[in-house]
């Protein structure tokens, strides 16, 4: 469901934006924002379906939203992979520094503990 469909459902019932806002427990401004949105989150879609008593397409729409979220996550993963590839040398330097720092801290702890035992 997108904003235009939300508006059509609301208008087909003769509801004002304020009436839908009251039923949804949100402000009128929120309903206005929903109706201007191209894509609504799955939580909003579920809420609107329950308000409009339209569960027929909820499962299909839920699957579509889940698929869209997976695709978005894949894009994020691709961005991370691209970042790693583009910054491989810098990341190796950071890893070497972390290893060096860990070693120095361990050596310092051992030295302190050894002197305490003497």
TrEMBL record:
It holds the Pfam family HTH_3. SUPFAM superfamilies: lambda repressor-like DNA-binding domains. GO terms for molecular function: DNA binding. Residues 7-58 form the HTH cro/C1-type domain. InterPro entries: Cro/C1-type_HTH, Lambda_DNA-bd_dom_sf. Transmembrane segments: none annotated. PROSITE patterns: HTH_CROC1. This is HTH cro/C1-type domain-containing protein. It comes from Flavivirga aquatica.
């Amino acid at each position: 469901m997108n904003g235009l469909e939300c508006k059509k459902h609301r208008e087909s019932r003769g509801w004002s934006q304020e009436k839908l806002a009251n039923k949804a427990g949100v402000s009128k401004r929120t309903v206005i924002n929903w109706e201007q949105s191209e894509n609504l989150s799955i939580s909003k879609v579920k809420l609107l379906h329950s308000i409009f008593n339209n569960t027929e397409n909820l499962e299909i729409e839920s699957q579509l939203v889940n698929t869209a979220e997976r695709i978005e996550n894949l894009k994020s993963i691709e961005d991370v992979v691209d970042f790693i590839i583009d910054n491989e040398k810098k990341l190796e330097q950071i890893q070497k520094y972390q290893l060096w720092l860990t070693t120095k801290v361990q050596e310092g702890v051992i030295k302190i503990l050894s002197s305490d035992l003497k």
